[in-house]
Design goal:
Blueprint lengths: L2 H23 L10 H6 L3 E7 L2 E7 L16 H8 L16 E5 L8 H8 L4 E3 L15 H13 L4 H4 L15 H21 L3 E4 L2 E2 L5 H18 L4 E5 L7 E2 L3 H9 L7 E6 H6 L7 H14 L5 E6 L1 E2 L10 E2 L8 H8 L8 E4 L4 E3 L5 E3 L2 H13 L7 H13 L1 H21 L5 H7 L6
Parallel strand pairs: 3-4, 3-13, 5-7, 7-9, 9-10, 10-13
Antiparallel strand pairs: 1-2, 6-8, 11-12, 14-15
Helix pairs in contact: 8-9
């Protein structure tokens, strides 16, 4: 539209607006205010006015009594451009001393294809996402256009989604559910996710094994395996990954033996694997903090489960102390695990090519007191983890990082340690027996 036409339209719009205001006040000379019936039947035309933040619509001949609703301010082109600028460039994995693919669990709001843009935004070489809403059982299918964009973006950004994308399962699903109606509901939601994976070319899918609901553990494990076998027969390519858990209450998966027992009952072993969460492992009593402790834990994983089943990592520090059975994720190096634990992980040769996904907290408080998600946290943590590859843990550089991060998380560690100590004192006084109510409430901590 030319400047001249814009001026013409703007002038027309101004006149129409004044006319509408005059009609509303009932002061048009030599004309009666139109009746309500005539107003509603009157032909409505629209005048378009181009503005800085978009297009405003002024209705010619619109009912005078109807006031225009305030328009929601849209983001300017400048705002959108700034948001699109990557917070960190993706590191070429070939340039690292070891082939470690590191990323985070990013948002898929607005469509699954947006997860790839969000991964690129933080400089990730691996990522996780939710394939649908986690707040409800029934969800609409992935729109074909979103699916096609996911494929196109993964290709244009050189993401091998069949290797380095690990969607997270729904928190609503419990494959150990004993009641048939609820078990069927859980299975259908689980199968729906696997089918979504296959439509997107994703080969790895992570989920929480389940909860016994206070019933026999061996039977609960058998139910999980039965549901997995059924889902494997209904699909063809996705590898279902059992996530290790922190160990609250009736949750299954806090020991390597739990994972082993499920895998043993799987018919097609090619379709099952394990995703190790570092925070969960530490909280469940598997230490990673020193080279010796790290080796001992890796050896246990190999001897009990088998490293061939290790397909992914969730990389998280822990706000809670060792063997506390509390699932409280902390930012890398700020928790009880500490930076040395992640140095051990990043420099372990067999862990190459395995997707490593951050689930660390990024909620921060702004100057106005409101909380917001600071994705720069993930961008920085990815670079930090990459920098640990080949770094001497006795170097001044490593020690400086370690001291800074430990100081950053000191108050939170002290707070949680105090909670754990007070709880231990109560348990010591009352005995180790835990009531059903207490066990059920503790299950809520298992979240990521």
């Amino acid at each position: 539209m030319s400047r001249r036409s814009v001026r013409h339209v703007s002038k027309a719009a101004t006149l129409e607006t004044k006319e509408l205001e005059t009609q509303a006040n009932g002061t048009i000379e030599s004309a009666k205010a139109p009746s309500k019936s005539k107003v509603t039947k009157r032909k409505i035309t629209q005048v378009v006015v181009e503005e800085e933040h978009g297009t405003a619509m002024v209705e010619k001949g619109a009912p005078a009594a109807e006031e225009a609703k305030p328009k929601k301010k849209r983001k300017s082109a400048k705002d959108k451009a700034e948001e699109a600028i990557p917070l960190a460039k993706r590191t070429a994995v070939s340039s690292l001393k070891k082939s470690m693919y590191i990323g985070a669990h990013v948002s898929s709001a607005g469509g699954v294809h947006n997860s790839i843009n969000n991964a690129v935004h933080i400089g990730a070489n691996a990522f996780a996402l939710f394939l649908k809403s986690q707040r409800k059982w029934a969800n609409s299918p992935i729109p074909p256009e979103a699916r096609d964009q996911f494929h196109a973006l993964s290709h244009s950004h050189s993401f091998e989604v069949h290797k380095h994308c690990v969607p997270h399962g729904s928190y609503l699903v419990n494959l150990a559910q004993p009641e048939k109606e609820k078990a069927d509901q859980a299975y259908n939601a689980f199968l729906d996710d696997l089918e979504r994976c296959e439509s997107l070319g994703i080969r790895l899918y992570n989920f929480h094994p389940g909860n016994t609901n206070g019933q026999d553990r061996a039977e609960a494990i058998r139910r999980i395996a039965t549901q997995l076998n059924k889902s494997h027969k209904a699909t063809s390519t996705v590898i279902t990954l059992l996530e290790n858990m922190a160990g609250q209450g009736n949750v299954i998966g806090s020991t390597f033996e739990d994972l082993r027992d499920i895998i043993e009952l799987i018919d097609d072993k090619r379709r099952v694997g394990v995703c190790v969460d570092t925070c969960h492992a530490f909280a469940a009593g598997y230490d990673l903090r020193t080279p010796e402790a790290f080796k001992d834990t890796v050896d246990k994983l190999e001897n009990v489960v088998g490293l061939k089943y290790l397909k992914a990592f969730h990389i998280n520090d822990s706000k809670a102390p060792f063997n506390s059975h509390r699932d409280l994720h902390a930012n890398i190096g700020t928790g009880f695990l500490g930076l040395r634990a992640f140095h051990n992980v990043m420099n372990h040769e067999p862990f190459q090519h395995i997707p490593m996904v951050l689930e660390t907290p990024i909620e921060r408080t702004g100057p106005d007191g409101k909380t917001f998600e600071d994705k720069q946290v993930w961008a920085d943590e990815i670079k930090l983890l990459e920098s640990l590859i080949g770094m001497d843990p006795e170097s001044e550089e490593f020690k400086a990082h370690d001291e800074r991060l430990q100081a950053q998380g000191a108050s939170e560690r002290s707070k949680v340690q105090d909670q754990v100590d007070r709880k231990a004192e109560k348990v010591a006084k009352k005995g180790t027996r835990r009531g059903k109510k207490k066990a059920a409430s503790s299950d809520d901590d298992e979240s990521d």
